[in-house]
Amino acid sequence: MSPSRSKKADLRGADADLLKIVAVQSGDPRRIRRVLDSGEPLPPSLVPHLIALLGADRAALEAMRGLRAIASQRPGALIDALLDVRQSRVIRRRLARVMSDCRTPDVVEALLQAGDDDHISVRVQCARTLFLLRRRHPELQVDGERVMTAVRKEIGRGAQDIGLVFTLLALVFPAGPIRVAYRSLRGSNARARGFAMEYLNGVVPPDLRDKLAAVAERLSPKR
Question: Each residue of 190-217: pLDDT tens digit?
Fold first, then answer.
């Protein structure tokens, strides 16, 4: 192939990528769907534009679908955006959801870091994504000490979302019993609640027992 013909082919590729970027930047879900459903690989240059669309409710679902399609190939861009506090909490929360399709130690580390975000919605989604990743890929390692530090911080913040506390506990202790304990504590059966607290007292560190009991009491239907 002659140099001139090669240059023309490269330009056609660049033009195609530019058209995809323009379609995504339009925010029109129909145009975005045409790009995503074209059957062609999404170019890396599209990633920042899809991330920006996560903050737009009208196009967020399509943006998330596009990012999921390339998340495993481009986790670094997602990680950088997740940890960038200049991004809105809505974008960071939706990025954490997208990252449930990644399964690398770097992603786990990023979710642990973002799990200390100032915004409760981001912390909740990071914990949920970590839980999903561990369930789908048990080989992934999550630092139990860091998770327990997060549990202590959540309780120290007043446990705004009690479900978050139990999601974090399920990352450290067997998930099945933790989920049963959570459901029991939300129920009205005093005996089941007692068994749930007995189980929790047997697994959590001593310094957390009284604090966790106070949090669990807030789950009582009587409250």
Answer: 999 999 999 999 999 999 999 999 999 9
Confidence of residue 88 (pLDDT cuts 50, 70, 90): very high
SS3 39: coil
Task: Quote the CA–CA distance of 9 and 3 in Å, as a whole number.
Answer: 10
Give per-residue burial for 149-158: e unless 16+ CB within 10 Å, then b: ebbbebbeee
Residue 187 · residue 131 · CB < 8 Å: no
Closest C-alpha to 99, from 72, 80, 124, 120: 72
Residue 208 DSSP SS3: helix
Whole-angstrom distance, CA of residue 210 vs CA of residue 5: 74
Continuous H helices in 83-156:
89-98, 105-114, 120-136, 144-156
Residue with tokens 């080989």: 139
CA–CA separation, 87 vs 92, rounded Å? 7
Distance of CA 87 to the CA centre of its chain: 15
CA 2 to chain centroid, in Å, comes to: 48
Calculate mean pLDDT across residues 164-180.
Answer: 97
Residue whose entry in the numeric block shows the structure tokens 């690398």: 104
